[in-house]
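Q: what sequence does this backbone want?
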């Protein structure tokens, strides 16, 4: 796969650091992609999603869901077992993990639930009223004549 240098993008843009960082992370192939634990991302509405992470073997006390800036971090650390069981086969993975999800602007975490070995995290995009599209009134004739603004003297 090709390697792309995004340095010119940093020099030619202002305020697009997140986009360049995201592209840099996606195009970097030297990092191993973790596959544990498995997860699903489900679209539940036009502006809502649910991340479901398979966390079999972990209790709610051993799980952590944290939001830092635009990054959702799901982590788990298994408490040490007191029993000295002898396993003939140990196929249930309960190793510690940390899974990170980049969230877009204005995506809010609504809550998290742990049930039947699945951790579900609900997300929703809530665009502030100031950023939503708005209709601009069109007036006939000269705008300045219809909407006079009185100048105030500055002392």
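A:
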């Amino acid at each position: 796969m090709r390697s792309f240098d995004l340095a010119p993008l940093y020099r030619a843009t202002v305020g697009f650091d997140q986009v360049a960082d995201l592209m840099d992370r996606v195009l970097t192939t030297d990092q191993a992609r973790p596959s544990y634990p498995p997860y699903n991302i489900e679209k539940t509405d036009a502006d809502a999603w649910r991340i479901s992470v398979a966390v079999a073997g972990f209790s709610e006390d051993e799980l952590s869901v944290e939001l830092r800036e635009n990054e959702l971090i799901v982590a788990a650390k298994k408490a040490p077992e007191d029993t000295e069981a002898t396993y003939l086969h140990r196929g249930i993975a309960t190793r510690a993990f940390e899974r990170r999800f980049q969230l877009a602007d204005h995506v809010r975490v609504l809550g998290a639930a742990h049930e039947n070995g699945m951790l579900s995290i609900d997300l929703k995009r809530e665009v502030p009223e100031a950023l939503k599209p708005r209709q601009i009134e069109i007036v006939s004739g000269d705008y300045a004549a219809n909407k006079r603004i009185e100048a105030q003297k500055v002392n």
